[in-house]
Amino acid sequence: MANLKNTSDTELTYLINAGVKEAFQEIFERYAGRIYQFSLSYLKNEQDAEELVQDVFLKIWEKRESLDKSKNIKAFIFKVAVNSIYDFIRRKNVENAFRDFSRANFEKQSDNTWHQVIFDEMSDNLETLIKQMPPERQRVFRLSREEGLSNEEIASKLNISKRTAENQLYRATTFLKKHFKADSLFAMLFLYLWCG
């Protein structure tokens, strides 16, 4: 394919939508640096920012067939980046809050390895409960808590009303609070950070 350096973003969007990898590579080259700097300003860690850039553009490629060719792809890329940063910070905050709490409440002999084992076990328990929910409720919860989408964005993505999205999210968090084994301060903190 001819050099795409002078091709407009709009034309590249059409090509990406059609699965043209060279067009995707050109968009990556145009915006990866900006997304990296944008991410770094929030994450304060070069490796995390690099990983986030890869994640953002992977999502763009995975959603290529549903790209709205009438809209600005630059704005879409930054929107995906913002959601990814939100999700990343939320996950980090959950892990960091858990570790801070455990350090403050247990002696040093219970080291970080032990804390990670407990954290992983609670994550597995949460995942098991999520999988017990109806498929649409699972999707709404994951889009909210794992991808950081707003209720409006979830409604649009799943082609449901905002009210339905809110209802499903409420039912999901209520179910998790009821069935998650919050039999320790650790578990209560973990659940609050995910469902609060």
From TrEMBL:
GO aspect biological process, one term: DNA-templated transcription initiation
Domain RNA polymerase sigma-70 region: 27-93
Gene3D superfamilies hit by this protein: 1.10.1740.10, Winged helix-like DNA-binding domain superfamily/Winged helix DNA-binding domain
RNA polymerase sigma factor 70 region 4 type domain span: 124-172
Gene Ontology molecular function terms on file: DNA binding; sigma factor activity
Keywords assigned: DNA-binding, Sigma factor, Transcription, Transcription regulation
Cited Pfam families: Sigma70_r2, Sigma70_r4_2
PANTHER family per record: RNA POLYMERASE ECF-TYPE SIGMA FACTO (PTHR43133), RNA POLYMERASE SIGMA-70 FACTOR ECF SUBFAMILY (PTHR43133:SF46)
Family that this chain belongs to: Belongs to the sigma-70 factor family. ECF subfamily.
This protein's name: RNA polymerase sigma factor
